Fold this protein.
Amino acid sequence: MTHAEKTVSHKKPSIEIIKNGPYIVKNVDNLINSQGVPIPAQPVMALCRCGGSNNKPFCDSTHNAINFEDDKT
Amino acid sequence: MTHAEKTVSHKKPSIEIIKNGPYIVKNVDNLINSQGVPIPAQPVMALCRCGGSNNKPFCDSTHNAINFEDDKT
């Protein structure tokens, strides 16, 4: 078993999609930026889904300002 | 302890951010759409981060077509 495959005890992780809004991520401790550097994670986080946040990867409600419409899911 | 707080044994969940690209989500079984309906999840999934995918919530490489640039994270 590799390190990546190690089984850990953890609260149930989930990702809930908000209509025309962000991903609500729960219980995912390991958030890694595009340089491979861990970002401090919270038990509940809203991650940008519209591509427009000025606080990426987190939601800053820009989806409302740009009228992001998700006609799927 | 509520149902939501139940501790489960699970492979380590993570979200890795791809530069100018999607979220790579690993070991998150619970993916819920904006109607509250679970979406079949895979051990590794690429979720749209640019807002432009035609296969939301999954990445379809539209970030390349629209030259999505993520100057943060």
Chain A touches chain B at residues 4-20, 23, 25, 27-35, 39, 47-52, 54-57, 68, 70, 72-73 (CB under 8 Å). The radius of gyration of chain A is 14 Å. The beta strands of chain A are 7-11, 14-17, 23-26, 30-32, 38-39, 44-47. The CA atoms of residues 31 and 39 of chain A lie 6 Å apart.
